[in-house]
Amino acid sequence: MNTVPSRPSARVLPPNPAQAAIVVGGFAVVLYLVELVDRVVRGGLDQFGIVPRDATGLMGILWAPLLHNGWQHLFANTLPFVVLAFLAMANGLGQWVAVTATIWLVSGFGVWLTADSGSLTVGASGLCFGWLLFLLVRGLFTRSAVQLGLAVVLLLYWGTMLFGVLPGDPRISWQGHLFGALGGVLAAWFVSLGNRSTAKATPA
User: Fold this and answer.
1) Which of 56, 80, 148, 175 has its CA at 20 to 30 Å from residue 2's CA atom?
2) Mean pLDDT of 32-60
3) In angstroms, rounded to a whole number, what is the distance separating the alpha carbons of residues 93 and 79?
4) What is the pLDDT of residues 140-164, one digit of tens each?
């Protein structure tokens, strides 16, 4: 008799919710501590954001998601950051780190290559867009009805957020949103390839 193995790729919640909550909560605390230091030094940390097509601005790719242009900017990012990061950890911490790194780098390099000259980009919204798109499309790759159902819920709640990938308010980096979203799709594709390569035949 054939038995069907469990499919960890079809999960929608982290296998260890407590660990996921601690990691995401700790990450959020870091963002608030960084912003507190930035307020103390009167915005001096923001200079380490992404400066397009400037060699020194490349370092901003590493630091920009940790920086925000004031408390209001950080508050606006906090809820999607916490919820989407937690849900993106459905297949464990290791995969989440790889997914997040992919989004982080694709979003950052995209901004560095395409943003307006002389601009300075900071903020974690690129990560938020990346996690959102990762969660929206992964069900298509895994063919998981449960993940597709979660995608529908997220789309209903945060669907209007997707308009942020289009040019609009000059004070907002639509490039960071767009390339973060592309990074999320790319990460979902990488994850699907990894799942296929490690898939095993159903035992008889």
Assistant:
1) 148
2) 94
3) 20
4) 888 889 999 999 999 999 988 888 8
8 Å CB contact between 50 and 111: yes
The phi, psi pair for 147, rounded to 5°, reads: -65, -35
Mean model confidence pLDDT for the chain: 90
Q: Enter the tokens of residue 57.
A: 């601005």
C-beta neighbour count of 68 within 10 angstroms? 26
Contact 121, 47 (CB under 8 A): no
Distances (CA, A) of 34 to 2, 30, 63, 159: 54, 6, 10, 29
Contact 49, 120 (CB under 8 A): yes
Three-point CA angle 96, 50, 92, nearest 5°: 5
Long-range Cβ contacts of 113-120 (<8 Å, 24+ apart): 113/52, 113/53, 114/52, 114/175, 114/179, 115/50, 115/52, 115/173, 115/175, 115/176, 116/52, 117/52, 117/53, 118/52, 119/51, 119/52, 119/173, 120/46, 120/47, 120/49, 120/50, 120/51, 120/60
Cα–Cα distance measured from residue 12 to residue 144, given in angstroms and rounded to the nearest whole number: 10
Size of the chain, expressed as the number of residues it contains = 204
